[in-house]
DNA sequence: TATAACATGTAACAAGTTACATGATTTC
DNA sequence: GAAATCATGTAACTTGTTACATGTTATA
């Protein structure tokens, strides 16, 4: 039970919702950050239901496809509280896999390596600029979107550091073979 | 075919090895960064073999358990080169899932949130210090370990930025409710 | 009347983990 | 003779993706 459970639990804690609604919300507000696919959300909801973290209530309007409206249960609340404490209380294990390319940098000709790192630098600085252009949610917290600003500010800080490191490293590599 | 394939391909590019040997090498030199389990390595090797990225050669010493020695094939070399260019040439998609806790920060009492973030700060700065204590491989590049220093320096930079951001954020949160 | 939006799902596949199983050899 | 090391694997499970299938209702 991982990130997706955490996310859905958090959204359902705000208010009961059906699957499509959750997917739409994520799509509209969080798709820049969250990569969960719609089919995944449905199956994660099934599993959460099986584990008693949420409860299901079928509703139908006219002849439309029925909706399954999910409510967080006390067990779900408890689990969410646990996940929240864990998530806030310590940093994530850092992702080294993204650095495999660096680990194998010596397997490629130095000039080509430099070129690639410069490509990376361009993309990274574009991404960084794009992040900074995201408007703040700040005021309207109806859906609990306030925290997104925090996450964006952290990501921005990390990207800037990455860019600075990369720029410095490229210079170093240019200096000595 | 993802990170583990990339890693094993890179190690096999250096020299042919059997599964146990690869696992030992990762355990001794890369376990701080790489989390792949031994059973995973074996099954990834099987898949790589099936895809023709590596070739297998059985050897046996006395009555010992037989070894399967793997060699990278031309197809494997090509695939490795591709992965390397992709990995170096652009930044990884950033990991927002680690920020889910922040996104839901408003779901917890402010004082408790602050306490948790301070715990996180402690762990993070300890991790950061630990990273800096890792000795450089620098000289002996027999196994292609040179790049590890690069990866460590990047991780250090990122962690420091994370710590700085966290420290700043805690201050901000303390100031205004 | 076409198509976008609504609403849910299944089947097949891919990747990884955990726990267990096997048996030889070296070292204490 | 016990324990560590050598060397490989399997079975069951978890999580997630892709591609496909189904049918309704509002809108242009």
Brief rundown of the structure:
Two copies of one chain form a homodimer. Chain A is built from seven helices and three strands.
Keywords:
homodimer, 177 residues, mainly alpha, three-stranded antiparallel β-sheet, 7 helices, 63% helix, DNA-binding
Q: What is this structure's SSE topology?
A:
The structure is a homodimer of 177-residue chains.
Chain A: H1 3-14, E1 17-18, H2 19-30, H3 38-50, E2 54-59, E3 67-72, H4 74-89, H5 100-103, H6 110-133, H7 146-175
Antiparallel strand pairs in A: 1-3, 2-3
Helix pairs in contact in A: 1-4, 2-3, 6-7
The structure holds a DNA duplex (28 and 28 nucleotides).
Structure report:
- The structure is a homodimer of 177-residue chains.
- Chain A is mainly α and 177 residues long.
- The first copy, chain A, is 63% helix and 8% strand.
- Chain A is built from seven helices and three strands.
- A three-stranded antiparallel sheet of chain A has the order 1-3-2.
- The longest helix of chain A has 30 residues, at 146-175.
- The first copy, chain A, starts with a helix and ends with a helix.
- The mean pLDDT of chain A is 90.
- Chains A and B meet through helix 1, helix 4, helix 5, helix 6 and helix 7 of A and helix 1, helix 4, helix 5, helix 6 and helix 7 of B.
- Chain A binds a DNA duplex (28 and 28 nucleotides) through residues 1-2, 4, 18-21, 23-24, 36-40, 42-44, 47, 62-68.
